[in-house]
Design brief:
The chain is mainly β. It is about 10% helix and about 40% strand. The protein is globular, with a radius of gyration of 16 Å. The N and C termini lie far apart (about 35 Å).
Length: about 170
């Protein structure tokens, strides 16, 4: 569904920050992440969500990302239209948000706010993401559950976002 792709694009737009190593470190290696839309509301209409809207991908977590989980949860893709993430990733808790401006080069682009809240441990995490935007004149709210778990050594076929663990 297009709204789910918009939210996933918003998640990828959170740039990485620099903070000290966390007391809770993620295990380096292959992680499986599943993003499941929980609700999509356009105006006052709740949209249908199909099982096909759930997306699963594998990621290769580096030792540096594991030592500083913010580097994993605040993805290192720069986007001039989005603010750096505001909030924290520390001590097993995720509380991040950002704002992205409308892209003047894209006719269907809209401003959007993204909030991610959740928890993490050495071998798993769970978070809720809420994106607020608009579609035409109608407000849009997308809620997504994101879960991840450690799955052993990297295979080399993971999402290219981070590449092989270092």
């Amino acid at each position: 569904m297009k709204f789910t792709r918009i939210l996933m694009t918003g998640l990828a737009a959170l740039p990485a920050g620099t903070i000290a190593a966390d007391s809770i470190q993620l295990t380096p290696g292959r992680w499986i992440e599943t993003a499941t839309p929980e609700s999509i509301t356009v105006g006052d209409q709740v949209q249908d969500i199909s099982p096909g809207d759930t997306k699963t991908k594998s990621l290769c977590l580096s030792a540096a990302e594991g030592a500083d989980p913010r580097k994993y949860f605040a993805v290192a893709e720069q986007n001039a239209l989005c603010t750096p993430p505001i909030g924290t990733v520390a001590g097993g808790k995720i509380a991040l948000g950002n704002h992205c401006a409308k892209d003047p080069a894209k006719a269907d682009s809209q401003e959007r706010e993204l909030e991610i809240n959740g928890t993490y441990g050495a071998e798993s995490y769970a978070a809720k993401a809420v994106m607020t935007t608009s579609f035409g004149n109608a407000p849009v709210v997308i809620q997504l559950a994101i879960a991840g778990h450690f799955d052993g050594a990297c295979h080399g076929d993971e999402d290219p976002r981070t590449g092989p663990a270092k």
